[in-house]
Design brief:
Layout: E1 5-7, E2 9-11, E3 14-16, E4 23-27, E5 34-39, H1 43-58, H2 60-64, H3 67-83, H4 85-96, H5 100-120, E6 128-129, E7 136-144, E8 147-151, H6 157-170, E9 174-178, H7 185-197, E10 204-206, H8 211-220, E11 226-230, H9 233-245, E12 249-253, E13 259-262, H10 268-279, E14 292-296, H11 297-313, H12 332-347, E15 351-354, E16 358-359, E17 367-368, E18 371-374, H13 381-384, E19 391-397, H14 400-408, E20 412-413, E21 415-419, H15 423-432, E22 437-440, E23 452-453, E24 455-456, E25 459-460, E26 462-463, E27 473-481
Parallel strand pairs: 1-5, 8-9, 8-11, 9-10, 11-12, 13-14, 13-21, 14-19, 18-19, 21-22
Antiparallel strand pairs: 2-3, 4-5, 6-7, 7-27, 12-25, 15-18, 16-17, 20-24, 23-26
Bound molecules: NADPH dihydro-nicotinamide-adenine-dinucleotide phosphate.
Length: 495
């Protein structure tokens, strides 16, 4: 059997072996086969990457690069991603087990992230402020922060990296990325493409490895000006505390337990498809999974019937095959976590209407059946905590007020879905739901143009759209006295 290939860090524009000389394996979750071994990063690798990023940031060529030119580089990077989309989609699907169809879809959209921020690069500007003193010119400038750290998860590695990297570079920062230990390959390839696009060495660096060994030293590095993180709420909370202690900003996109609400006036067939899309697509491994389904009692039985029937017919198997509908969980521990939550739900009195078992998918991989839980309520741990797997808890409700209270009774506030044909109700629900994104008669829609923010324990700060540029810049206020006369009374504040 041939040795798995080795992946190095990417520091200062080139592949760089790990300081420790150690590597760790990354396996295909559909088959258990080891795909490659990645460099096991430590604090010295992180220090080298932050130093390379700082050098690139301070370099006069980067400092003097026009914003328009920065936009050109981002556009070129988007084009290169498009040219390499099939390779990247396949590599990502092998690494995290998500359907090749889904990863192809993500890769078809990903260039738009870079193209959007390419267009925005020369529109980052300050204002002239009309203070009350006409002899003073006061203007603001949006400056880049310096070295940005990006820590990303395994569920959509390139897309979630794009949400951070594209605006960070657009604003003139340089970046050090620590991808999930489960998905190192495509982010390393992205860093190579950034150099090919013309970004100077050190503008985009990647250190692979484990959260505690490489992620934590990145968060703690004094050279970091900002940290942007997507992952669990528990890790996000630790990162936010560390960042606050050093007075640097953090943008956090964290977990969810999103409600997907079906009213009695909904098109129930469409709503059932939306429920299936919300929780079984990507095997439920998305932060926006619609894991709590609330159905009005008048349509509860019909919705249950439709969703469970579709769940039973979902084709589990090889994520590379065109007709597969559900791939594996990303790694064995994740499957075990899903299984333990379903066991917990059973012990708390839930009934498993369909699914509820781990399987190897006939491939030796770590799959879990699409699962529908009923006889559940908001007090159960399986209904309160993020499972991050294909497990829907379906509950009936009677009134709009009741479902608003149930939907908002969660620590999280990432997203919510509403299925209704009543226009007034649609707007009412959008206003009443305590979630950063509300979808009406659709689910899982996303665009780099549309800002998103997690409320409550689902995050801090905004990703996407023009709003996120504020997260990657600092605001400077400049006062120019245009009066050449004597400076007035030194003991009175000037306005
Ligand atoms: P984590 O939040 O632990 O991991 C996300 C990223 O943070 C990874 O790159 C991880 O590295 C890194 N990391 C872990 N610990 C630290 C640390 N102390 N300092 C800095 N970086 C760190 O999530 P997991 O991958 O462990 O998944 C656990 C659960 O989190 C899932 O079951 C799911 O519920 C939730 N999750 C939510 C996501 C979302 O999109 N909101 C995405 C992923 C997970 P490493 O991979 O090496 O641990």
């Amino acid at each position: 059997m041939s040795e798995p290939r080795r992946l190095y860090h990417f520091i200062g524009g080139k592949p760089t072996p790990p300081d420790s000389g150690e590597y760790f394996p990354s396996a295909n979750p559909a088959t258990g086969e080891v795909l490659y071994e990645a460099a096991r990063g430590n604090h010295r690798d992180i220090a080298a990457a932050v130093e390379a990023a700082r050098k690139a940031f301070d370099d006069s060529q980067w400092q003097e690069l026009s914003q328009t030119r920065r936009g050109h580089l981002l556009r070129r990077l988007g084009d290169l991603i498009a040219e390499n989309a099939e390779e990247l989609a396949r590599s990502e699907s092998l690494d995290n087990g998500k359907l090749l169809r889904e990863m192809r879809g993500q890769l078809a959209t990903l260039p738009e992230y870079y193209h959007y921020y390419a267009g925005l690069a020369d529109k980052i500007q300050g204002d002239v402020i009309p203070t009350s003193d006409r002899r003073v010119l006061n203007y603001t400038v949006r400056e880049p922060l310096g070295v940005v750290g990006a820590i990303t998860p395994w569920n959509s590695p390139l897309t979630l990296t794009g949400s951070k990297l594209a605006p960070a570079l657009c604003a003139g920062n340089t970046v050090v990325i620590k991808p999930s230990e489960h998905t190192s390959a495509t982010v390393l390839r992205l860093a190579e493409l950034a150099v090919e696009a013309g970004f100077p060495p050190g503008a985009v660096n990647v250190v692979t490895g484990f959260g505690g060994e490489a992620g934590q030293p990145l968060v703690d590095h004094p050279g970091l000006a900002k940290i942007s993180f997507t992952g669990s709420t528990a890790t996000g909370s630790r990162i936010a505390a560390a960042a606050a202690g050093r007075f640097i900003g953090s943008t956090l996109e964290l977990g969810g337990k999103s409600p997907n609400i079906v009213f009695e006036d909904a098109d129930v067939a469409n709503a059932a498809t939306g429920v299936v899309a919300g929780i079984f697509a990507a095997a439920g491994q998305t932060c926006i999974a619609g894991s709590r389904v609330f159905a009005h009692r008048a349509v509860y039985d019909e919705l249950l019937e439709r969703v469970s029937e579709r769940a039973r017919s979902i084709r589990i198997g090889d994520p590379l095959a065109d007709d597969t509908e559900l791939g594996p969980l990303a790694f064995p521990d994740q499957r075990d976590k899903v299984a333990s939550y379903v066991d917990l739900a059973r012990s708390e009195g839930a009934r498993v209407l369909t699914g509820g078992r781990a399987t190897d998918g006939g491939l030796g991989g770590c799959f879990y059946e699409p699962t529908v839980l009923v006889d559940v309520h908001n007090g159960m741990r399986a209904v309160r905590e993020e499972i991050f797997g294909p497990v829907a808890a379906i509950m009936p409700f009677d009134t709009e007020d009741e479902v608003v209270a149930l939907a908002n009774d969660t620590d999280y506030g990432l997203a919510a879905g509403v299925w209704t044909t009543n226009l007034a109700r649609a707007h009412r629900m959008a206003a009443r739901l305590d979630a950063g994104t509300v979808w009406v008669n659709t689910y899982r829609a996303m665009s780099p143009m549309s800002p998103r923010q997690g409320f409550k324990a689902s995050g801090v700060g905004v990703e996407h759209g023009t709003e996120t540029i504020k997260e990657y810049t600092r605001l400077k206020s400049v006062w120019i006295n245009t009066d050449e006369g004597p400076v007035p009374d030194p003991f009175v504040m000037r306005g």
